[in-house]
Amino acid sequence: MIEKRALQAVILIACLLPLVVGGQGIVHGPAPFGHLTDVPRDLDSHFRYISGIFFATGLGFLSCVPAVEAKGARFRLLGGLIVVGGLARGVSLIAVGVPSTGHILGLGMETIVVPLLMLWQAGFARRYLAGVTAPSSPAPTSALGR
């Protein structure tokens, strides 16, 4: 049970990033992220759309917390979306150059932390379900019970 609580706590903490940053992007657009005040409407629209998706992944991960051992498929789907986004961020790093520190930290979350969380969740679920479904051993008999 300790491992389950630890995994749940780490997921809750990790959910803060997409919820806070995605929420900021929805409400404020790209301005707070690059000190941009006059961006094209299409760029603003796209940025807010992507921020909404990011926010929604945070909600999705949050929905995995209560029964994390049973939410493997959802966890892998959400994690896969984040990893692909991180790989796209890596393409930008190669094509355009090194972004700000916040984006580098995001890249680390997306390509290192999330895959590690996916592995942890899968391993925990496997161990948890094996323990739940393992046949119970017969109760020990004592000499008096014979």
From TrEMBL:
The keyword Membrane applies. It comes from the Bacteria. Keywords: Membrane, Transmembrane, Transmembrane helix. The chain crosses the membrane at residues 46-65, 77-96, 102-120. InterPro entries: DUF4345. This is DUF4345 domain-containing protein. It comes from Sphingomonas longa.
